[in-house]
Amino acid sequence: MFAGPMALLLRSLRIDSRSMQSHLTRFGLIAGIYVSLIVTVAQAGIFSAPGLRFFTSSITLNAVFLTLLGFSFFSTTISEEKEEDTLGLMLMAGISPLGILTGKLVGRLIQAMFLILLQYPFTLLAVTLGGVTSTQINAAFVGLGAYLIFLAGTGVLCSTLAPSNRLAGKWMVFVLFAYCLIPFVCRGLLKFGVFLGIFSSGSFRTNSVLARLTSISVFDRLSAFGATGFGESPWSFQVLSNLLAGVICAGLAWVLFGVATRTPSTEHTTRGSLSTPSAKRGQQRGPGRVWENPFVWKDFYFVAGGWNSIKKRILPYLGLFLFCALLSASWGGPEVLEVFQFFLMPAVAWDLAMVLSQSIHDEIRGQTLGALYMLPQSSTWIVYSKFGGALLAMIPIAAIVVTANYVGIDTTYDFLNDAAALFLISHFVLVPHLACLYSTWFRWGAVSLAIGTTLGMMAIWVSVFITFRSGDNDGIVATAGLVALIACSACHPLLLKRLDQIAARS
């Protein structure tokens, strides 16, 4: 009865122990904590309670790291088996749906738990540095553990329902977006209701529910964890709600497993959101005739999703604008366009990274790169033609960026006149470059690793700015931006060389 799940669990742990990606991830997380400790020690004579600063930066790093794990590591639990056509073999071997889910999910959960628990002794250094109690640290790790259960449960549900890794990752991003948005919405409704006198004594239940929902996010709890004199119970509403949501989502994945995996994916390449040709009225039309450049045509339709995908890309950015409007109303300080422009850069970087890395990953997974390189065209022309087709789907994004910058021209002008503009833009441009390069080495998580690498670089630079601050840091900030741009240009020859090696072996 337990032979199948145990075999999957042991296989998952063995693959993890031999995977370079897992070891690099652990190294990156420990390196981030080490840098945070160095900065804290360097600033011990400047700021009070250095232990509290070190503890706050550590738990924030862990929360961001777990979020990256959510839409890459957990969201591929079942969908990767669908893409590799091995899910049917597991079912034929007599492993039950619960056994498959348990064997696949528990292994990944153990790996992620180890990443968090191994940091516990290092975090206790914050008590020695001063400003933090052991109760505070225990509460923070309990909160992060509950958030990890939530990510695992929602990730396996998205992975069970989605036919591909990319779609599961997108669904997981929307789940995390809603997870962060709900507290702001409920907080805004409370303020609006109190202002209009809606929440009187007769509507106490509604008021109480909304107040509870404002504290479901671990990111809202970070400020409480880092507060001086923290004395709350570790079993907060955030912990209980995250644990309950994770268990419910895992249970739904079990219940819906048979329906969602009845017809596993058999395509070796993605088709984006492209639908099949149909003569019925109202149906999406097929891609039609091949363009003069077949690589641009193929990636535009079969990777980026074609014209249908262009229409669908507008909705998430409209949702982002509404989210920024709620943030602006909640903060009561910056204008909506300022907040929108701030969040637009990472959103565009993530979207570009997803599409461009998928363009490379599909050819490697489908083992078609060698056949492409046999065509009478240079490898450089083939690769950049594929990128051109994928970039055509970014037309609405370009329009939104231009419109936002045109409407908020004063904010944009002030931002570009600052040296920090080069620093931020260059690092966001680096994300899709690294994602394309990482997609040639790793089966999953290329985008997450690219984001994590870029955030790590930015954190190191910011630490340098704070530690060695002087009267004018514009030169150092501009240098950091130029380093990121040099890294972007270095990714191009490295990517072409790596693709040549893969094509020679295929």
Give a quick precis of the structure:
With 506 residues, the chain is an all-alpha fold. The chain has helices at 3-18, 20-42, 50-70, 79-83, 87-92, 97-117, 120-123, 125-129, 134-161, 165-196, 204-213, 218-225, 237-255, 257-260, 294-302, 306-331, 336-365, 369-373, 379-391, 395-407, 409-416, 419-438, 446-467, 474-505.
Strand content: under 5%
Helical residue percent band: over 70%
Number of H/I helices: 24
Number of strands: 0
What structural class do you assign from the helix and strand content? mainly alpha
Outline the structure in words:
With 506 residues, the protein is mainly alpha-helical. The protein has two domains: 1-176 and 218-267, no CATH class; 287-506, no CATH class. Helices cover 75% and strands 0% of the residues. The chain contains 24 helices and no strands. The longest helix is centred in the middle third of the chain and has 32 residues, at 165-196. The model is unreliable at 275-283 (pLDDT under 50).
Topology:
Elements: H1 3-18, H2 20-42, H3 50-70, H4 79-83, H5 87-92, H6 97-117, H7 120-123, H8 125-129, H9 134-161, H10 165-196, H11 204-213, H12 218-225, H13 237-255, H14 257-260, H15 294-302, H16 306-331, H17 336-365, H18 369-373, H19 379-391, H20 395-407, H21 409-416, H22 419-438, H23 446-467, H24 474-505
Helix pairs in contact: 1-6, 2-3, 2-23, 3-9, 3-12, 6-9, 9-10, 9-12, 9-13, 10-11, 10-16, 15-19, 16-17, 16-20, 17-19, 17-20, 17-22, 17-23, 20-21, 22-23, 22-24
Give the key terms:
mainly alpha, 506 residues, 2 domains
